[in-house]
Amino acid sequence: MTAAAGRATRALPALFALLTAVHLGALLADATTAVHLTKPALMPALAAWALVRGGPWPLPAALVCGCGGDVLLQIGGETAFLAGMGCFAAGHLCYLALFTRTGRGVLLTRDGWGVLLTRDGWPRTAPWVAAGYGAAWLGTVALLWPGLETDLRLPVAGYSLLLTVMALAALGAGPRTGLGGALFMLSDTLIAAGLADWPRPPVPQFWIMATYIAAQWLLMAGATREAAPRPGPEPALVRT
Questions:
Q1: Low-confidence winner among 13-22, 30-39, 101-110, 144-153 (lowest mean pLDDT)
Q2: d(CA 210, CA 80)
Q3: Distance (Å, rounded) from C-alpha 240 to C-alpha 232?
Q4: Among candidates 99, 15, 7, which has minimal Cα distance to 52?
């Protein structure tokens, strides 16, 4: 590693942590200017950190798509909201490309988390886990449906299905990425709850961004950790 790369490796985590602290603090303090200045910088800083950690191209691409979504949602209005949702959907497709091409997954068995490499290159999870994620998506959409504007119902349902598939693939890629996918679902559910006029916690934007930032960091950290070379042979399959 060159000296410049070493400095970047040390500086970028500090920059991301500083931006996160300032952004979340500004949300709590209702400091609108600081919120608007820091939000667009969060994901580019994380994308740069992913690059110095050796992340494959779909990872920084997903984070850049997240930046686009952040900016568009900050603009406000239904058109910007739908465009922002499209940016996040593109990011989920990048994550899917990443998790399905690595071929490394985690399977929950009686003995705990077991690493596996599937023969067809797709990560796997236990069928009951996939069924649970599917039920969570269906139940959430069914509950939200009556409270959503008519022209938002199908886009929200389709987007949330893609998010659920990404979160399930993230779970298949490792416990850290799995937690990141689950937090991403929680963050977007809080946004959808606002669209449907559901009760939300105080300062909802703080919780939306806290869970979203944690989700993106976990997805990045887990993906770059899995991308790092490991000594020794990899198991071809872990049987349940």
A1: 101-110
A2: 22
A3: 23
A4: 7
State the residue for tokens 């608007």: 36
Res. 111 pLDDT band, cuts 50 70 90: very low
Q: 78-100 burial by CB neighbour count: b if 16+ within 10 A, else e?
A: eeebebbbbbbbbbbbbbbbbbb
Q: Give the sign of the dihedral formed by CA 24, CA 27, CA 33, CA 35.
A: positive
* ∠ Cα 80 82 86 (to 5°): 110
Residue 59 in contact with residue 212, Cβ under 8 Å? no
Residues whose CB is less than 8 angstroms from the CB of residue 240 and which lie 6 or more positions away in sequence, other chains included: 107, 109, 126
Strand partners, 117: 104
**Per-residue pLDDT tens over the stretch 7-22:** 667 789 999 999 999 9
Angle at 190 between CA 189 and CA 193, to 5 degrees: 85
CB atoms within 10 A of CB 142: 10
Query: Which run of H or E residues covers position 11?
Result: helix 3-29
Residue 77 carries which DSSP code? Answer: S
DSSP state letter for 147: G
Model-level pTM? 0.82
How far apart CA 210 and CA 240 sit, in angstroms, is 35
Q: Please provide the DSSP assignment of 155-202 as one string.
A: HHHHHHHHHHHHHHHHHHH-HHHHHHHHHHHHHHHHHHHHHTT----S
